[in-house]
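LOG
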Amino acid sequence: MARRALRFALLTWLLGACWIHVPGDRHRPRTPKVVRQSRPTGAISDQCYLVKESPALSKSELHERLALRKPLPERLALVPSHQGRSTLVSTRAAGAPQDARLLNFNAAGQTVEVSLFDCGTVQMLEKHSSLWRVLLSDCDAVLPGTLVQIYDTTPRVEAPESADVAGGVKTTVLQESESARAAVTWNGMNGFSPSNCPREADGVHVAWRLWNCAQGACSLLHEEEDDKALVCEFGSLKKGILTMVVGETRRFWIPWDAPDRRFGRPVPERALPAGDLVVDLTVLGIEREAVFDYKLSEETLKLVNARERSLPVLASRAVGVGIQVFAWAMVYLHYLPPQDLDNMVGFSDTVL
């Protein structure tokens, strides 16, 4: 009986040693299911905090920024005014803010020229305080004569008081999705959540902007629309992303001391830089259980293998195997008949 227990303990140790030295692929191949994909229709919603909690840009404010040598806003949102919505001819633009980039502010002529994404350029003249009239337009979505208000979508370093907290990161909605949240279903460790939200093992298609806010003011670092299915390696952002639906845009404030800065793909392929950051992220599509079909790059595989064979990992696994062997030995000795235990003690004394 004692020899059988010893053999079993030795076999357990050998299996543990093989598991230590030969890290296998634990991913199961699955066929991902695409929920649907969309494209963002604008920078912000007319219900977001930028419209509700901040004034629209006026000509005098742009003059003041130039006089104080402050940077002009990098990104703008053109929000159609109630007085000018009848001139909009596109359902995409009807009531929806337009994402824009400031091209030129002519202080002498008092005009502003902006570029609308996927559309064209628009030149505007201020009609009265913070209300602008479109003079010239290359964009079919906005006709000359349209009345709009301009909002600075460049984030501030501090999140607004109305921001929520998800996973230790402050976040707020910039643009609501056209699709309503579906019925609530069980989402594993995250409890109940809408069925059309991402889950732990899902991949997402995203469009995102990264702002650097380390110097007291935010400046645009990078923006990208990723067509690949990303495994949800979003670190501090993950809690917030798991509550989003396709077409929704959220803004996340990442503090400098956030420990988990993974972003999208496994490191070293993508990670957020150090410092205070703001991330604007739009979910374009969801692929169910894409984590089981995701193929790591060669660089990531080398990093994973090196981590699997590192001394701390090997030591922790060896300790785990030792604890298992010790536990089995204690169980065996507890149920061992007294005569067999005496024989084992006598045999050990003879050997000594």
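LOG (cont.) second protein
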Amino acid sequence: MPFRRRWTLRAALYLMQACASRALPVTDPSSQRNADQQKTEGRRLTQFWPDHPQVVMGAAPRPKDGSAREHPPAPAIVRMLGQPNHTAIVLRTAKTLPMALIDACYVRDPLPAGHDMWVLHNTDQPNISTGDQLVAKGVNAMVYTGQNVRDAFGQAYNGWLHYTPGLVLLLLSAPAYQYVWAIEDDTLFTGRLPSFFISQADHTEDFIGAHKPTHGPWMWGYGTVVPREADKVKTKVQVYRLSARLLRTFDDMLQLGLHTYVEGTASICYGLRWCSTRQLPQEVQGTHFEWNTKLTPRHLCALGDDGRDKWQHKLPWMRRPTPDEVVVLRSVCDAQPPPEETCSRLPVCNNTMMGSMARCVPIRTPRAKQVS
């Protein structure tokens, strides 16, 4: 056999072996391969799902004896103002800190009694000044990195999976909280924010959030629990509330090597006998409240009375708003129509002009070639 052909075959065999050694778990619990894997590894989480122990395992779960953590893991930076109250309201963000949004909508009105405001900042380069800036505004701060998550749970998490572990790290840092609200930084409540939390304060369910049945392949099932068909419900991750006991269950799962996709939160709760759920009221869900909707500043200017006191999504331009956009944000968060003069200065958008930040962008017209 020629040398080049032998080398090619050896390289192909090496690649096949390498890929096989790093193969992802099978996500279909009914497959024979997955059944054999679960049988030989003996890691069915019957303590979580006694009647439905179909679990797809992640990589190399850590041993767990059921006892509480002796030394809870810590994020990179925690700045806490006083003792924790009953409920944490968490604005989750990454990369750029949305200071203009925090000023316009989150620190203008005092929160209801028993509620604390937090910002969870997921970044690769933690900076102490970030926490100091937030504390100066009266906001609790937690800054954490992907390495903090890996140190805490022993898994190679990527950015998509940092949301739930970040909330668990918060609870481990401040275990007195009974409930934690999580809000994405491109989600906006078009009204006085304290009024919303007052309306939900008396509810005791473990999970409050918008969720709906979904069918077909469960794309959030890799490395986590594959729910029964009746329990396949997708969570809208823009805003939701978790109980402390549900977050502690997520901590147990993470230590066992399970991924906990935030979109699968409601399904996990449905699979737990003790876990109670409640829909986010339809009357506070705006017409733009899907993962792929985009709202421009012009959309906020056009909101009528039926668009106020609702959660809207998504508005990524809020992370770096222009001065006119800050005026619009302040008005909307104050449950007031934005000034017409300000709105008239905003560019008019159409579908061909929407940029990745949901702003109007100029259409580039090709220049005609000059004939020499």
